[in-house]
Amino acid sequence: MNILDDKYKQQLEEVMNVIDNKTVYNSINEIMDSFNKNQISLQEYSQNLSTVTSILENIKIPKIKIDDSIIEYFTSVNSIITDLSKYYKSSNLFINIINNIKYISDGKTNIRSSQATDALILKRMFPEITLSECEDFINYVSQYPMLSFKNDIGKKIYEFIEKVDFVEIYNIKVFRVRKHEYGRKAMYTEDEMFLAPYKLTQQSRFSSTGQNYLYTSEKLNIAKEEVNMKKEDLYTWIHLEVKNPFKILDIRNNNIPIFEYCHLKSEDKNSKINTEYLLPNYIADCAKQIGFEGVQYYSIIDNITNNYVFFKPGIRDFIVINRGKDTI
Predict the structure, then answer these.
(1) What ranges do the domains of the chain cover?
(2) Residue 145 confidence (pLDDT)
(3) What is the pLDDT of residues 237-286, one digit of tens each?
(4) Cβ proximity of 228 and 301 under 8 Å
């Protein structure tokens, strides 16, 4: 069984046929041999992907044009493997190829590579659970996001958050940005800046579809980038000061694996249901049930700016400093 798709293997063979550099030829030959294995260690797989990507990006071969898709393939897969190595530093993991599907395995359980990052983060959080249980939770929360607390790992997450101390915030200044919809030209009112209509509220990092939470940032430029606006998009911004205290769940400690997961960039923004948001959605639901009134986290844009999402915001809880309308 071959780890590479046939067209990628074929092009590598074409490259080898015209290479004069013996060292480079031997390197690719070793890579091809390792990729032909049904099972290969995660560490070896990562090293081989890095090597072949570097060769294909930098080598100049007059007799052959390397298809951009092969470089994109190796680059994207290498990124996934690098992430896995970051979240779970273990030499005991390996790649298993079963019916042309890539799995991450610890010798007992095979997990689809697409679920591996989630599973390994949960394993780091709760070392006593098995990878199989991690995979079961991922599948469960994907099918029944509103019932995640009934799963054993869902209960563990809830109990962990229950032990986290409240952080009280007030007198801080934040920005809120809302993109204009359906060709609207008029600036949004102060009330409209706090609650969007139900039908316009989509799933976000800490909120499921229909949950009207207030997403804010301490920096206006970050708040604009967070809403994914395009050039010429019109938006209304509002500058606020938090007047009344809020009890906040602070998840900025990336040494806690499930909090670190909440800071991963989403690769699935165009889907109606973003699977990468399901765990952060559940964490926010747990926090709200426990009595937290919002979440403080780092912006995904620069990883240093403080962002805040408030669960039940009201204009009475804030002082409006200023408000305006602009385009990107």
Answers:
(1) 6-107, 167-327
(2) 84
(3) 999 999 999 999 999 998 899 999 899 887 655 566 777 888 999 999 99
(4) no
Interval 194-221: pLDDT, tens: 876 555 678 889 998 878 899 999 999 9
Task: Look at the pTM and tell me if it is higher than 0.90.
Answer: no
Structure tokens at 101: 């599907």
Taking CA 122 as the corner, what is the angle to CA 119 and CA 128, rounded to the nearest 5 degrees? Answer: 110
pLDDT of residue 46: 66
Task: Pick the closest to residue 19 from 32, 7, 34 (CA basis).
Answer: 32
Mean pLDDT of 25-41: 68
Burial category of 177 from C-beta neighbours within 10 Å (exposed 0-12, middle 13-18, buried 19 and up): buried
> Longest C-alpha distance within the chain, in Å?
73
